[in-house]
Amino acid sequence: MEEYIPLLLTKYNYWVYITLMMIGLWAMIAKNNLVKKIVGMNIFQTAIILFYVSIGAKYGGTIPIIQHGPGHGHGAAQIKALAYINPLPHVLMLTAIVVSVATLGVALALVIKIHRRHRTLEEDEILEQLRES
Amino acid sequence: MKALALAIVVLVGGLLVSATVDFPDWADPNSPASRHVSPRYIEKTMEETSVPNIVTAVLADYRGYDTMFETAVVFTAGVACFLLLRRREPRPGPSRVYRHRATGVIVEMNRVPDKEPSPDVFKRIDDDWTPHDLIVMNVCRLLIPFIQLFALYVIAHGHHSPGGGFQGGVILGASVILMALSWDLRTAMLRMKETATGLMSAMGVFIYAGVGALALALGGNFLDYAALSPLLRVDPVAARSLGIFFVEVGVGLAVMATMVLIYKNLASEGRLDQGL
Amino acid sequence: MSEQYPALIVITPLLAALLVSAAGWLRPRLCFPLALAGLGAAAAAATGLLVQVLATGPVTYRLGGWEPPWGIAYYVDNLNAVVAALVAWVALFNLVASYRAVMTDYPEKIGPYYTLYVLAVTGMLGMVVTGDAFNLYVLLEITSLTGYALIGLGGGRAPLASLNYLFLGTIGASFYLLGVGYLYIVTGSLNMADLAKLLTPLYGSLALLAAFAITLVGLWMKMAFFPLHAWLPNAYGFAPAPTASLLAPLMTKVMVYVMIRIMISVFTVEFVLQEVLVGQLVVWLAVAAMVAGALFALGQRDLKRMLAYIVVAEVGYMVGGAWLGNRLGMTGAVLHLINDAVMTFCVFLAAGCIYQKTRGTSFEDLRGLFKKMPWTMAALAAGAMAIIGVPPTGGFFSKWYLIRGGLEAGHWGFVGALLFSSLINVVLFFRVFEIAFFEPSGGDDSHGGHGGHEEHGGAVALAEAPLSMLLPLMAAALGLIALGLATGPLVQKLILPIIPAGLG
Predict the structure, then answer these.
(1) Which residues on neighbouring strands pair with residue C41, listed in sequence order?
(2) Calpha distance C21→B257 (Å, rounded)
(3) B9 and chain C in contact, CB less than 8 A
(4) Chain B neighbours among A 58-117 (CB < 8 Å)?
(5) Domain span at C282
(6) Does some domain include residue C388?
(7) Structurally, how many domains does chain C consist of?
(8) CA C353 to chain centre
(9) Residues of chain C contacting B19 with CB distance shorter than 8 Å
(10) What is the torsional sign of CA A56, A60, A63, A64?
């Protein structure tokens, strides 16, 4: 047991993201309401964003904006990579956020279209209607 | 379904947990991700692009190609919502309600009029909800210009502080959506026509891809802003900084227009006559 | 200009899509010509690139002028180049064929329809040429989002089918993204070639295995590999005809390409064969895909849905071939990827032609079609022969390679399932042609379609699909035979050079 405690303490970012991700996945599979599934999908995607952003963290690093820069294009030698956190995951996640917003928009549009036709968003009721027709 | 979901969740979760054993600790400065590619961005970005905000530099220059398609994703979502939802036939139900602006008299018509009365004289009121809260409307009226000004600042100052095209574009879009919420959808539509919204979202992505194609036409690779330097009459590093600014403007435009387009179509189920 | 081909492949359709969108608001008439010009230019650039790659070897292109791994780079070898050319040409032919169908069904939405159509092709072409693992995700999402919208446009159950596709597709894409994140966290790089170098010392680590597993499961969801195929039959079965004949041939094939790329270029075949102990299990899953796809197809009473289940079985062929672990199997998988794109296109386009005339694709709508639409049915027969695997169509040769690969690996289950599914295909298509050939049209037909009154004289009037649909269909049918005849050079010149040496 003793050896697992450091594992729990030093890698908690991974536990948080996995928990969130599984909550989202659960909602997507087990929920009956289509909008709840979409909410689950968003939690699922957010968990991955959390994972990526947590990769970027560095002890002692600040946000990746160069402060009091010595003017454009000169004297960049003083900038130390250790002083700033890793910017790449933030860039990648900006993309992922945009993708998840876009997916959300299209999903809601589809849900509205489904609601127009079936007047309900409960999946079992829709399937019932389809079976009858 | 519940049992299946539980099984999948436990299986996937177990796989993910087991893999973390080999991962670096949180915030470890010696992790591979912090040591391999990213140090170059931090150390060289001022020298190569003269943009202090490293995220902006990586987003719009080093990995600018990703970002171009990211903007295209936003544009796609807008077009997709339009394609799926937009319909031209009017809302069912015979009556239409109007308020005479000068006198405040409310008129109900028994059928859909052949010709819509002028919006300056008669204001059409939604069937199910009539927003006329004086405080909300006027506070929003005061706020919206400042919100838009702030959005422009966020777009333009993305080089030096957190911000950029996406963030500023969303704030701009939110200002229009706020108007639709506090007044009504038709008023917002009068200020920003559907055609204009659609054209702007295409134009935003076009600015981005166009700047890239211009670089290609001037002999560089696609999106190599340094190739624009003869055209802009600046040195290649400054050309990169300016190129980033141009594409950020394009991103802002596309994001703003698309947010509005998606909102209008979702809120009114594609009829664009009345909504939230 | 020739060094810019890789960029042009993606940029011309992207710019064309934006112009189409603008034209949709201002001059809807211009939408189709603009889309045609954009995809035509892309097809020309893709062909140019293929010629160039064959002549001078793999091409690298640095976007923004940044050297990899800091910037994004394209890496194009024979495999990308041939898949890119395939995607561009199939999409171009389908665009021509889609004109009448879109004009009839969605006259008000030509602009957005063609915008999304061209964007979907842009995404696929980008996915094929890119050499950056994260860039692939962005392009994958473009293709998926356009796909959801183009499918959800259909009437009836299409929106629900599309939403289910969206849920599963998003899980799949997110898994791929997570897998890329795992690779990034252990290496710090996103460039495929750079990853391949950095990953070698890490073989054996649990994180790497998890990354591989998650990435593959994500891709399998996207390509509808059994048992993750649940979204595909409904999505492609209920999609509007021009959408189905764009996505069904190309989307699954591009995802199979991505899987092969990840297997041989990011990881290595040594890793796949030695570290991953479940290779046999994957081949058995492929066996299950072939058998299940064939059996489900038997239960359908609608041509498009039947074809959709055949796609599920075909994905099994390719994944199984790639995982057999020998050169013949991999060759067969790549060759089948090329052939399958063309034959799926051929049969789905034939179904689209039938829908255009009869407004339905259920088996009742097929009655008497051999007399009414002889050319369409001839092309459908050619496609069916390729799917069954009759020489001289290409389908025969790729199946031949796959079977030989299965025999060499000693995997009798794979060989048996392949033969079984081919046999079922014979039954499936024989049933279709029996209805179309022998059963008289019209009569009690409730659709009241064309030709009901033409029965009396015994001679049925021709009611053939418009020429703009027939010509691409004929091109596809002839292409199948041409691919079959060109198998030798195709394998020698194109495919063998890219099969990694590590395969036994």
Answers:
(1) none
(2) 13
(3) no
(4) 58-61, 63-67, 69, 72-73, 76, 79-84, 86-92, 94-95, 98-99, 101-103, 105-106, 108-110, 112-113, 116
(5) 278-504
(6) yes
(7) 1
(8) 19
(9) 182, 206-207, 209-211
(10) negative
Domain segments of chain B: what residues? 49-91+131-276, 93-126
Torsions phi, psi for B124 (to 5 deg):
-80, 140
Mutation target to probe the B interface, by most B beta carbons within 10 A, among A28, A93, A101 is A101
Residue by residue, DSSP assigns C441-476 as SSTT-TT--TTSGGGTTSPPPP-PPPHHHHHHHHHH
pLDDT on residue C449: 43
Domains of chain A (ranges plus CATH)? 4-58+82-132 (1.10.287.3510)
Give the confidence band of C446 by pLDDT, cuts at 50, 70, 90: very low
In a domain, C464, yes or no: yes
pLDDT tens for B110-156 read 777 777 778 778 877 776 655 567 888 899 999 999 999 999 999 99
C107 in a domain, yes or no? no
> Percent of chain B, pLDDT > 70?
94
Distances (CA, A) of C383 to B122, B140, C389, C456, C504: 62, 62, 10, 32, 33
C141 neighbors C112 (Cβ within 8 angstroms): no
Q: What is the pLDDT of residues C285-304, one digit of tens each?
A: 999 999 999 999 998 888 89
Q: Is C56 left (phi over 0), alpha (psi -120 to 50) or beta?
A: alpha
Contact criterion met (CB < 8 Å) for A92 and C134: yes
The string of DSSP letters for B72-122 reads HHHHHHHHHHHHHH---SPPSSS-EEEEETTT--EEEESS--SSPPPTTTE
| SS3 state of residue A133 | coil
Check if B167 contacts A (Cβ < 8 Å): no
Query: Which one, of B221, A69, B230, B114, lies nearest residue C71 by Cα?
Result: B221
B4 touches chain C (CB under 8 A): no
Lookup: tokens for B51: 């943009």
Domain annotation covers residue C359: yes
Q: Is A75 exposed, middle or buried (0-12, 13-18, 19+ CB in 10 A)?
A: exposed
